[in-house]
Amino acid sequence: MTNKIWAYIDQFKGEALPSSWETIGAGLTLAESLGGGVTAVVFGENIKGVAEEAFQYGADEVIVADDPTLGDYRAEAYTTLLAKLAADSAPDVILFPTTTRGREVSGMAAVDLNTGVLVDVTALEVVDGVVVATRPIYAGKLLAKVQCSAKPQLITLRGRAFAKPVEDATRSGTPITVPAALTEDEISVKVVDYATVSGGVSLADAAVIVSGGRGVSNNPKLTPPGDLDEAGQEIWKAQQGFKLVGDLAAALGGAVGASRAAVDAGYIPYSNQVGQTGKVVAPDMYVACGISGAIQHLAGMRTSKMIVAINKDPDAPIFKLARFGVVGDLFEILPPLVEAMKARLGK
Predict the structure, then answer these.
(1) CA-based max dimension of the chain
(2) How many other CB atoms sit within 10 Å of the CB of residue 117?
(3) pLDDT one digit per residue (tens) for the chain, 347 residues
(4) Cα(120)–Cα(223) distance, rounded to whole angstroms?
(5) How far, CA to CA in Å, does 13 sit from each of 43, 140, 326?
(6) Strand ranges for 122-164 from DSSP E
(7) Which helix (H) or strand (E) holds 41?
(8) All domains of the chain, ordered by start, with CATH?
(9) Residue 235 phi, psi (nearest 5)
(10) In terms of Cα–Cα distance, which of 170, 147, 133, 174 is closest to 29?
(11) Distance between CA 152 and CA 268 in Å, rounded?
């Protein structure tokens, strides 16, 4: 475990999150300036396949803790082990994906290691031997260059901000096996069950996101069932509108997002929310349908590589950020657009 740069691989039930491989890619770029290679860190149970993938994605070393106590993610067990390994081996930098688990482990490990965390980073560089990170501030309006004076520097990387290395199936290696840090009796949290709250393409990993706002409920041509009250009729209309949003997302192989206004109105679950208080995303293309573009929403998607806006209001703030804008009724625009995309993409 001689490398200065570690990459934490976030996995669930033996399957790594795609953004984890981006940490290896970012680490390899840093290693060109700092020297050495990249050590991937994988915790879990029955994770031999994840360790093999880490080598294939470019890791020079892979530290593996494969133990029943790590089969279910529990922050206490994962953080204690990571902090112990880092204290013993003293890496300069540990990179994490900005996932729910990545944020939690990095924050708790920083406390144990008496260091800091640079969060939601979108670019990295080495200046005079020190890693300098760039991260958005003030809802993405400004970019700040920051560094941590303590070591190891813990850094969480925004998903899709860094390139994923090309997988090389010919690369392999022998993992460095380490034991778990805690026994089952020493772990206070117990996992009793799992529940699936949503399906489809993950917002964090999607290359294309199609989002809907309050405008998806404003279709005057729809006649809701007569047994619904006013609030129920609004939600029913919104559900029909989000079906169009979902059809376009499906045609493009993307995920469905939503503004906070749509979520608060009960049109769609919170898990679909994009924005400052929802998920921060950076897809290749973001299509905003019936979203005016409040600053809180823009904070969650302004780093998208291409933004397309569809809105009836030509003065909607979203158009200031969009590369392509369509002024018009989304209910008239989306159906032929979906059919055109299906024909173009052979679906």
Answers:
(1) 70
(2) 20
(3) 567 999 999 999 999 999 999 999 999 999 999 999 999 999 999 999 999 999 999 999 999 999 999 999 999 999 999 999 999 999 999 999 999 999 999 999 999 999 999 999 999 999 998 999 999 998 888 999 999 999 999 999 999 999 999 999 999 999 999 999 999 999 999 999 987 665 677 898 899 999 999 999 999 889 999 889 999 999 999 999 999 999 999 999 999 999 999 999 999 999 999 999 999 999 999 999 999 999 999 999 999 999 999 999 999 999 999 999 999 999 999 999 999 999 999 98
(4) 44
(5) 11, 34, 43
(6) 123-127, 130-137, 142-146, 153-157
(7) strand 38-44
(8) 5-186 (3.40.50.620), 208-345 (3.40.50.1220)
(9) -65, -40
(10) 133
(11) 41
Question: Which residues 6+ apart lie within 8 Å of 90 measured at CB?
Answer: 151, 152
Residues 209, 283: contact at Cβ < 8 Å?
A: yes
Q: Which amino acid is at 151?
A: K
At which residue do the structure tokens 């082990």 appear?
Answer: 81
DSSP string, 197-256: ---SS-TTT-SEEEEE-GGGG--TT----TTS-HHHHHHHHHHHHHHHHHHHHHHTT-EE
My answer on whether omega of the bond before 224 falls inside 30° of 0, hence cis, is: no
Predicted model pTM: 0.88
Query: Within its chain, how far is the Cα of 176 from the centroid?
Result: 28
Token pair recorded at residue 231? 């609030």
The count of C-alpha atoms lying within 13 angstroms of the C-alpha of 78, restricted to the half-sphere facing its C-beta, is 25
- A 10 A CB-CB count for 282 gives 20
State how beta strands 11-12 and 123-127 pair. Answer: unpaired
Beta-carbon contacts of 16 under 8 Å, excluding residues fewer than 6 positions away, are: 9, 10, 42, 50, 53, 54
Backbone φ and ψ for 333, nearest 5 degrees, come out as -85, -45
Beta-carbon-side half-sphere exposure of residue 8 (alpha carbons within 13 Å): 29
Distances (CA, A) of 91 to 77, 82, 267: 20, 11, 46
Bridge partners (DSSP) of residue 255 are: 209
